Amino acid sequence: MATKANVLLIGSGGVGTMATYALQTGGKADVTAVLRSNFKVVSENGFSIDSVQHGDGITGFKPTQILNQVPSAKEGQAFDFIVVTTKNIPDIRPNVADIIEPAVTPGHSVIVLLQNGLNIQVPIIERFPTNAVISGVSLIGATETSPGTVRHDDEDVSKIGVFESPKVPRDVAVAAAKKFVDIYNACGKVDCMYDEDVPFTRWRKLIYNTSYNAIATILRMDTTRMRISEHVIDNLIRPAMLEVKAAAKAAGVNLPDDICDLMIRIDPNDTYWKPSMCQDIEKGNLIEFENIVGEPMREAEKLGVATPVLKTLYGFTKALQFQIMEAKGLISPKWEKDSKYA
Amino acid sequence: MATKANVLLIGSGGVGTMATYALQTGGKADVTAVLRSNFKVVSENGFSIDSVQHGDGITGFKPTQILNQVPSAKEGQAFDFIVVTTKNIPDIRPNVADIIEPAVTPGHSVIVLLQNGLNIQVPIIERFPTNAVISGVSLIGATETSPGTVRHDDEDVSKIGVFESPKVPRDVAVAAAKKFVDIYNACGKVDCMYDEDVPFTRWRKLIYNTSYNAIATILRMDTTRMRISEHVIDNLIRPAMLEVKAAAKAAGVNLPDDICDLMIRIDPNDTYWKPSMCQDIEKGNLIEFENIVGEPMREAEKLGVATPVLKTLYGFTKALQFQIMEAKGLISPKWEKDSKYA
């Protein structure tokens, strides 16, 4: 690439910060980072990072530009890549499409969704039919421990591939994905791979996320205790995983036979790890249940796969979102005399 | 009855206190009450009661005798009735059979289980095969607002019937149940009925308890909000109720077609009522999930009725009990290297 890629990166948690660092220090990208809660701190002092791959004691790191809102695309300065690392909460406006809209140059900006869940590309492709939409599945362990300070303690492995979009030729999208892999890997420290089979990668990750994230959130329980109790694995986690596996199969994705046993044991036991959705509810944050529980359930339904456990998990996580929304003042539940259940 | 019945009453919450009051003031029973948390207060000052049926401002009420532990049966002073109004937590020792054992005179004491749930009689009949075991289903609204102080704000309606026991002739058990109805009603203020069909009464109440109690507990949500959200009713409460109804049917109990719609709407909407199991978990108390969720599920399984929703509710409530037990110091979950899920 002759000139540096003009990258807009939205979302500044652990994943977003480490992506900003890798892209900017690789030298093949100028990163404009859109920050929220940590905007002031990072504008003044830069990020502080302890990283298992980039080194400890990094201070004062700033990308090319730091903004506190999504900029509008300007002529001659279009963003080549718009990387989204925010939570994906489609049940709340503004949703991801709303958030990125001002920055998108139709037919040009490549939209990279570095987010969990199924069918996250659907509303993006609908809104931006002429832009390539790229799947990013990150396996990084990185946490923002206080505003602007990130502890990156597990390797940054990410898989970048193509979401099929009717109006974008596949070779254009593939080239865009491979270019993103190139600029991400330019720092020489991380392991970003081109992903030939995005549905496989996403369904594989859902085996963990749909089960452990939802059940940990409903119970506020770490995954070590689930394995200690055994019954949480036997009566909740495994039945949920088996439904996701069956839905994947019906969608043409054949996951390995031992995938559930592998995912059941994938977390270390000495850290009493709480999955991210559980961390979110404990902080009072909205939860990403629609793409992590709702979409696999709906996909299964379309394909004729019975998912009674997922339906129940969906019912509970949607009810928890209702409570979080009330606590945040986004809704004010009031009893009405003409209610459906009056 | 020539002489007064010698009644032992174990459990001193709202239900237990109002039963003590009705039995003692009716004049056909001498009640020995076994109290725990409120023993000291009530020994000194008696109970304070505001009652929708017995009157407001009752103070200093004491039954014939107040004890702080279950007494041993003494020759010539056997208890005619042992009434149990404690929570029923069979997964913890001492269980109900353990608790009442010292007071039971084999072949004589009639054991009245004024408790919720299915199959609560099974361990009692096993331990005390020669004693009549009586079912009590109470619909009272009574709450102990502070130790020894009870607000009784909804009518005391109870149904008393027979649990079949192989070694106790049915006519003996029926006579015992009817005698209990007589001494309970003697105060002239309450509505205690002989129940011809205990399975019907218990399964009917389970339609509410298995669904609303478990789901409210898992979500810490009142039933008014569930009806406001609608989706909690549609996606959780009704599916659970339908499984209980199907299980009841397989057990030979035909509940009315409209039972679910009736139970969905049975609570007032202006009180934002949290079912008792939800109140328990919010107080850090152990929960009665085995007889309210586990037994209907196991009964359904035996009868070939699929209950995927109940199985999931059971998984969650059992996991919550695990957390409550840990918080109470009853268990100390530790990861072991040779664990099943290592």
Question: Which helices and strands occur, and which strands form pairs?
Answer:
The structure is a homodimer of 342-residue chains.
Chain A: E1 5-10, H1 14-26, E2 29-34, H2 39-45, E3 47-51, E4 55-61, E5 65-67, E6 81-84, H3 96-100, E7 110-114, H4 122-127, E8 133-138, E9 141-146, E10 149-154, E11 157-162, H5 170-185, E12 191-195, H6 198-219, H7 223-229, H8 231-250, H9 259-264, H10 276-283, H11 289-302, H12 308-327
Parallel strand pairs in A: 1-2, 1-6, 2-5, 3-10, 6-7, 7-8, 11-12
Antiparallel strand pairs in A: 3-4, 8-11, 9-10
Helix pairs in contact in A: 6-8, 6-10, 6-11, 6-12, 8-11, 11-12
Relevant terms:
homodimer; 342 residues; alpha/beta; 8-stranded mixed beta sheet; 4-stranded mixed beta sheet; 12 strands; 42% helix; 19% strand
Assembly type: homodimer
Rg of chain A over CA atoms, rounded to whole Å, is 20 Å
* Helix-strand makeup class of chain A: alpha/beta
Q: What order do the strands of the largest sheet of chain A run in, or round the barrel if closed?
A: 5-2-1-6-7-8-11-12
From the spread of the alpha carbons, the general shape of chain A counts as: globular
User: How does the major sheet of chain A shape up?
Assistant: 8 strands, mixed
* Stretches with pLDDT under 50, minimum 5 residues of chain A: none
Helicity range of the residues of chain A? 40-55%
Strand content of chain A: 15-25%
